[in-house]
Specification:
This protein has eleven helices and no strands. The C terminus is likely disordered.
Length: 289
């Protein structure tokens, strides 16, 4: 229950951060894409800094969630970040959310419930044993390079979608490294944590994923990048959980409801990401009777 609670808190913080960062990144011209100057421009925007603050809060909550639960359970819960954010935004702005938003939220929530029930993830170890990272890191690097190079050949929403996938892979890798690093803390205390290479690799992967996400948000609409980011993070994290931590998920005929769950989540994310609130725009004005 602790891991689920902190996973939900992480999802809410990350979803809110994505909306704020999208609002800031949309003001940056295309000439700054894939350059460090993009971050320099964003650092001067209070909205973007607020989003980064929420990212830090999410990182703490995610560390607690991963320390107390399997990565294949924790990471998929993050798919609720967008519907949770829109519902909270509607409350804060005191606006009535349109029916498509509620339908999208219901699709994502039902998809998550169906997927977790069908896959039944669990088991595994708290840390990565042996030389598993020796193969995982190069394969991840090759995948990231191919996706980024493909994205650079495209423009608009196609680039946003691919960069969203690249960012998702970076965040999934960050989560796997974080779980492995936190296990060192449990085993040998703070000294073991700060002596582990996983801690510093996690920082590098996290910064890289953040950079890719900003470029995804700058390249196109949230409706293009968010589904790839959301589903990519969940699915790649499950792959890390199974291959690195020895966690288990059901296969066979269970793949049918699992694929149905992925479809529900993807459809819900597209609907939700098209909302003006998700795009960082002002909420519609309330009618005065």
């Amino acid at each position: 229950m602790i891991s689920v609670l902190f996973a939900v808190l992480t999802a809410v913080s990350n979803g809110s951060a994505a909306v704020l960062q999208r609002r800031a990144a949309a003001t940056v011209p295309d000439s700054q894409a894939m350059r460090l100057s993009l971050i320099g421009r964003l650092l001067r925007q209070p909205v973007w800094l607020a989003g980064i603050g929420l990212v830090l809060v999410a990182a703490v909550c995610q560390a607690v969630a991963l320390a107390t639960g399997p990565i294949a359970v924790v990471q998929p819960i993050f798919v609720i970040e967008l519907p949770a954010t829109l519902l909270i935004a509607g409350r804060l702005f005191k606006v009535r959310l349109p029916r498509p938003v509620w339908y999208g939220a219901a699709a994502v929530t039902c998809g998550l419930a169906l997927g977790l029930a069908a896959a039944a993830p669990g088991g595994g170890s708290e840390s990565v044993h042996g030389t598993a990272w020796i193969m995982a890191l190069p394969l991840t690097g090759v995948f990231e390079a191919l996706v980024i190079l493909w994205a650079l050949r495209l423009r608009g929403n196609a680039r946003a979608a691919l960069l969203g996938l690249a960012a998702a892979c970076g965040y999934a890798l960050t989560a796997a490294l974080m779980k492995d690093a936190v296990a060192r803390l449990d085993q040998g205390g703070a000294g073991a944590l700060f002596a582990s290479w996983q801690l510093y690799a996690m920082a590098v992967a996290g910064v890289g994923a953040l950079f890719l996400l900003q470029n995804a948000l700058q390249a196109g609409s949230l409706a293009a990048s968010q589904p790839m980011l959301t589903l990519g993070d969940a699915l790649i994290s499950i792959a890390y959980g199974v291959t690195l931590f020895g966690e288990s998920v059901r296969t066979g005929w269970w793949l049918l409801p699992e694929l149905a769950a992925i479809g529900l989540i993807a459809a819900g994310c597209v609907v939700l990401a098209r909302s003006p609130l998700a795009g960082g725009g002002p909420p519609p004005r309330r009618r005065v009777h």
